[in-house]
Specification:
The chain is an alpha+beta fold. It contains ten helices and 17 strands. The protein has two domains: 60 residues, no CATH class; 221 residues, Alpha carbonic anhydrase (Carbonic Anhydrase II, Roll), CATH 3.10.200.10. A hairpin with a 4-residue loop joins strand 5 and strand 6. The termini are far apart.
């Protein structure tokens, strides 16, 4: 390939535009002019002064080449060959850089990532913290102790342990005005007390055996007037024997008529129930009545309709009762300040205890005894309380 062909090659590639003037100048300088050829004399090699050795300029820093550009690589190889030789130029494949350089640095991160993933895999969360948490919960949460229901019988739920069953029952042990008490008739304060006004009227019967006594639910419109304050009847229940004690003696039964004001204050009317007129006949002056034994119609209706299942309310169809039938004809009374005779033993209750009993038959007393007996609270200390008696 001659010089002209080389130049044409570079011009066709568009890569030697700047290099061609320097190549033509070099070639023209090598050719002698005609005048010089005629006058020039042959000069011996010895006479010719030695040319100073060429000083090579420091190579300019080569900018980084973009990878995989074959046209630029070939152009640079040709320029190097032209600068080094004046004869025919042979371009070999070894003069060109490798067409596809192997990026050695890229393989290392891949290997490292794989090694890290293999050597240190992420471990799944351990189940130990969950097990420890469960154990802590089991230890911290005690097994709930079944609640002991209160009862009148001796034992864990009996009257002596009522205060230990719930914190609300503390008055059952610490109260100073607890009921019932023993009423000593010779120690009462007699006075001109206002009579109790009973505003009772008939209502449909609804009752329940609550596991401790037989209880009748009252309806609206049944009230009593005590010291010009009206209390509504909320319930009626029975005890055998009586919770109230007169001069150390109990009646065969008693009925409690519980009343409540809208401010929360309570009044309980207690009526003794007896089948004998000789109940308080230890001394002749304490014989307060001489009525013959007879069946009480209202008490008989209640006995006949006691539900067969405990804690299940019963409302017999078209059965009507009137609470007035549970009161004696003579309604003189004793009164004192006391408490509920069941938990939570709330104090501040006005007790009105009829001096005369309600006469019932022995069979009625016996029938109730088949359901409940000894469902009463033991006597409490009277303390410094005053018991008043109406004249």
């Amino acid at each position: 390939m001659n010089l002209t062909s080389k130049a044409r090659l570079f011009l066709s590639l568009g890569l030697m535009g700047a290099a061609m003037p320097s190549i033509a100048a070099d070639e023209k300088a090598k050719e002698p002019s005609p005048a010089a050829a005629q006058t020039a004399k042959p000069v011996s090699p010895a006479a010719t002064p030695a040319s100073p050795p060429a000083v090579k300029a420091p190579a300019a820093p080569v900018a980084a080449k973009p990878a995989n550009n074959p046209d630029q690589d070939m152009s640079e190889a040709l320029v190097k060959k032209i600068n080094k030789s004046s004869g025919d130029i042979v371009l070999r494949s070894s003069d060109l850089p490798p067409p596809f350089p192997v990026p050695k640095a890229e393989a290392k991160p891949d290997v490292k990532v794989e090694k890290k993933a293999e050597v240190k895999p992420k471990e799944p969360p351990k189940a130990e913290p969950i097990v420890i948490t469960v154990k802590e919960e089991l230890i911290a949460t005690p097994i709930p102790v079944p609640e002991i229901p209160w009862t009148y019988a001796d034992g864990p739920g009996g009257p002596n342990n009522w205060a230990n069953l719930k914190k609300e029952n503390q008055l059952c042990a610490t109260g100073k005005m607890q009921s019932p008490i023993n009423i000593i008739t010779d120690n009462t304060v007699k006075g001109n007390l206002n009579p109790i006004v009973f505003e009772y009227q008939p209502f449909l019967l609804s009752l329940m055996d609550n596991g401790r006594t037989v209880e009748v639910s009252a309806r609206g419109g049944n009230n009593i007037l005590v010291n010009e304050k009206r209390y509504r009847l909320v319930g009626i229940h029975f005890h055998k024997p009586s919770e109230e004690v007169f001069n150390g003696e109990r009646a065969e039964m008693s009925v409690h008529l519980e009343h409540e004001h809208h401010d929360g204050s309570k009044v309980i009317v207690a009526v003794m129930m007896s089948s004998s007129s000789q109940l308080f006949a230890a001394t002749e002056k304490r014989r307060w009545w001489s009525t013959a034994s007879e069946e009480n119609p209202l008490f008989q209706i209640i006995l006949s309709n006691v539900p067969l299942v405990k804690n299940q309310a019963s409302s017999p169809r078209n059965v009507v009762i009137n609470p007035l039938q549970l009161l004696p004809e003579d309604r003189t009374y004793f009164t004192y300040m006391g408490s509920l005779t069941k938990p939570p033993c709330t104090e501040g209750v006005i007790w009105i205890i009829m001096k005369n009993p309600l006469i019932v038959t022995a069979q009625q007393i016996h029938s109730f005894g088949q359901i409940y007996t000894n469902n009463f609270r033991p006597l409490q200390s009277q303390g410094d309380r005053i018991i008043k008696e109406i004249r």
